[in-house]
Amino acid sequence: MKVVIIGGGICGLYLSWKLSKAGHNVSVFERKSEIGNKICSGLFSERILDFIPKSKILIQNTIKSAVLRFPKKTINLYFSKNFFVMSHFEMDKLVAELAKQTGAEIILNSNISSFPKGYDRIIGCDGADSFTRKNLGLPSPNLRLGILGFSGNGSFDNFVEIWPHKENGFIWKIPQGSETEYGIISNPKTANAFLNDFLEKNKIILMEKAAKIIPCGFSIPRNKTITVCGDAAGLAKNWSGGGVIWGLTAANILLKNFPDFLKYEKEAAKFFKPKIIISKFAAKAVYYFGFNFPYFFPKRAKMESDFLF
């Protein structure tokens, strides 16, 4: 089949690789002049190797736990799956090369203003502000803001640090080897003020500061020929904002059911909607008790890092 993918991020590139490998004629339209996400925290669950085995060469550090710092209690949170520090930019480049090797065409500087003609299937992987989602009349997911930057002081610690704040957001610190990443995910109206206050109090200076909108929800259409995946579908974890594993999981559901987009929507809804509901409730409960009744929490706990359960 002739397939067009709008958006050359990790999900669009992964789908183009797999669909082209399966024998379909795939074109990717990317609005930027080069492939590679530079505005994303490079922290991937080890499940990334199940999707992209060759990404093993990109590992810079391994993260085994998180130190969750509420004002009156610190919790050591151990992950059931390790995380890897990797360059998201290099990850995208790697998958783009795999896609090209299977015959996929990647067209840069393609700013889409209408759905392309002459294709059997259209897949929107065009991010939080998705053209595809908007033009299908789908509801916008809940939008949060992520801001990150880098300190020149590097570390190979095997844990991240997290400082929650009362607006159901948090500041993070990720040791990346040669440098350390600091960032925040929160309400778009207050995220920058929270982060700047934290940096000033801790005398931290960040270089290469950047921001990105993070969608959280479920917004896949019941449409036979056009669909969305990844950030365009709102598939990011409510408790952390991480979207790569959720997006690639949705991509595999799409691939399994391709070219039947109605079956894809049905199976994706069955898989993700319960997780979205439970994760929203769990995140609110953790914040509420963490700030108001922290003695309910143990000092050590274990967590399923990608799907909560």
Strands, total number:
14
Helical/strand content category? alpha/beta
The major sheet is characterized as: 9 strands, mixed
The number of distinct helices, counting runs of at least 4 residues, comes to 7
How many angstroms does the end-to-end distance come to?
A: 37 Å
Strand content: 25-35%
Order of helices and strands: EHEEHEEHEEHEEEEHEEHHE
Characterize the overall form: globular
Which blocks of ≥5 consecutive residues have pLDDT under 50? none
* Whole-number mean pLDDT: 94
Radius of gyration: 19 Å
The portion of residues assigned to helices is 25-40%
Task: Outline the structure in words.
30% of the residues lie in helices and 29% in strands. The strands form two sheets. Strands 3, 4, 5, 8, 9, 10, 11, 12 and 14 form a nine-stranded mixed beta sheet that branches. A hairpin with a 3-residue loop joins strand 9 and strand 10. Helix 1 packs parallel to helix 3 and helix 6 runs antiparallel to helix 7. The two termini are 37 Å apart. The model has no long low-confidence stretch (mean pLDDT 94).
